[in-house]
Write a structure and sequence with these properties.
single chain; 440 residues; alpha/beta; FAD/NAD(P)-binding domain; seven-stranded mixed sheet; 14 helices; 31% helix; globular; binds flavin-adenine dinucleotide
Length: 440
């Protein structure tokens, strides 16, 4: 076999994007994947004539985010994205568009008027804190909220925290909410932010990939330079061999030598592959808290959800997010039928899978009159959407490790954005670090 430059452990979106970038920088890469399939939690498969994704997805930041940067630089074939449409909020029987701007917020009838005003006051107080140089990564959303807000408003904000950072309102840092996007470079920072809050039009740069999530994975696979990337499935890495630095891996089937190893599994599992990591590093990894979720896919004999967009179910317990994927691409369901995914999070510690399935399905059936008689297919998934909650009291991994030529990548290595874009940010970070180490 030809000399291997890098071994990538794991074929999720982080591993695949890493292999694509390194191979297009002229390196020979081998990807080792323990499962029989490629894509990790970013793929699609068929269930009784429906094409379900691993959880309902919206792909964000398509205009200038990190995934876009990687697509522009390394993809030879790009997936086609269909505009995602609006986000709707469902509370009780009512469904209303998500209030993206302050103007929309002021008339957002699902939240009591008193709370809307209190929250605007809290927002301006927070922007004032920003001006006085406070570190937003250590302040939680609940710390800047007025005490007097109603339970409905608190649940609405808690919902946002869980879906954006995988942590509760008591643990989510406000940095995630205030400085994610780039702003007009010509505006004065705080004024620019306030201006944005008045005029913002919502998630206009989000999309759903035609053909399902698999289309993203297929585009990456099609973009690999010929003969530069080899993928081996059903091959679990059991040990990373280290001398002066990472030198190779031992798997369930074989052993491989290489110049660098990139690990894209859970960072907290890394000590199982290298027993003698420094204690302080291992201790931090042990404090990472994973996000958990349950998805229910429903195949329906008629189109019940007519909106082009997702719904945030604030009343649901656990909280839910619904995406009718066949509204974007009718080919995902049999003709005339609808495919809808509901993701529920957070699941309690040591939850019973059957109890959560029953409760979550019960929530859907109770909320949508008559849905039960149109159910043609039910499919459940228990998946980890993010490898690390971005809560201020939890640990987080890093792209760099204490071992030379060993790197980590994935959603527990970079505190920025969420989901696929967090994975993409981690790949950009990794490439910077590997480049500065002289790897390419
Ligand atoms: C319900 C749900 C909803 C979501 N919604 C959105 C959304 O709306 N928007 C969005 O952008 N993102 C969303 N995401 C998140 C997004 O899909 C993930 O963050 C992203 O796909 C994670 O990619 P990854 O490569 O970091 O991890 P993974 O996909 O977990 O990949 C890691 C891979 O490494 C392999 N592996 C681990 N250990 C080993 C080993 N020792 N040897 C060999 N292989 C190994 C695993 O089998 C796996 O294939 C959602 C996810 C879920 C589950």
């Amino acid at each position: 076999m030809k000399e291997i430059d890098a071994i990538v452990i794991g074929s999720g979106i982080s591993g695949l994007l890493t292999a694509l970038a390194l191979s297009r920088e002229g390196k020979r890469v081998v990807i080792l994947e323990k499962e029989s399939y490629i894509g990790g939690v970013c793929r699609s498969y068929d269930v009784n004539g429906y094409r379900v994704d691993t959880g309902p997805h919206a792909i964000t930041r398509l205009e200038n985010g990190p995934l876009r940067q990687l697509m522009d630089k390394y993809f030879t074939i790009a997936p086609q994205f269909i505009p995602f449409g609006k986000y709707y909020v469902r509370i009780g029987e009512e469904v209303k568009p998500f209030p993206w701007s302050i103007n929309a917020w002021l008339t957002f009838g699902l939240i009591p008027k008193k709370d809307r005003l209190l929250l605007i006051k809290a927002l301006f107080n927070t922007l004032y804190l920003a001006k006085s140089g406070k570190d937003f990564s250590n302040i939680t959303l609940s710390e800047v909220l007025p005490d007097r807000i109603s339970l409905t408003t608190r649940r609405f904000l808690d919902w946002l925290c869980y879906f954006l950072v995988g942590a509760s309102i008591e643990n989510a840092p406000i940095s995630r909410f205030v400085d994610n996007k780039t702003h007009n470079p010509r505006s004065i920072p705080s004024v620019g932010k306030i201006y944005d809050l008045f005029i913002t039009e919502g998630a206009t740069d989000q999309g759903y990939p035609k053909g399902g999530l698999q289309a993203i994975v297929d585009a990456i696979l099609a973009s690999f330079p010929k003969g530069s990337v080899e993928i081996k499935t059903d091959e679990q890495v059991q040990k990373i061999e280290c001398g002066e630095g990472a030198q190779g891996v031992i798997t369930s089937q074989d052993s491989y030598e290489c110049k660098a190893v990139v690990y894209s599994g859970f960072s907290s599992n890394l000590p199982r592959l290298i027993p003698d990591l420094p204690a302080s590093y291992t201790r931090n990894l042990a404090t990472i808290k994973r996000v958990n979720s349950m998805t229910i896919w429903l195949g329906l004999t008629k189109k019940i959800f007519t909106n082009q967009g997702a719904e945030m179910w604030v009343d649901a317990d656990p909280y839910a997010w619904m995406v009718p994927t066949s509204n974007y691409d009718p080919a995902l369901a049999p003709k005339g039928n609808q495919l809808v995914g509901f993701a529920f999070t957070p699941l309690p510690e040591n939850y019973s899978s059957s109890a959560i399935k029953k409760k979550a399905l019960g929530t859907i059936v109770d909320s949508i009159p008559d849905i039960e008689k149109h159910i043609d297919m039910i499919h459940y998934q228990e998946l980890i959407p993010e490898k690390a909650s971005w809560g201020i009291n939890y640990g987080f991994g890093d792209v760099r490790t204490p071992i030379k030529n060993l790197y980590c990548v994935g959603t527990d290595t970079t505190k920025r954005s969420a989901g696929v874009n967090r994975a993409a940010y981690s790949v950009l970070n990794l490439l910077d670090v590997m480049k500065s180490d002289g790897f390419f």
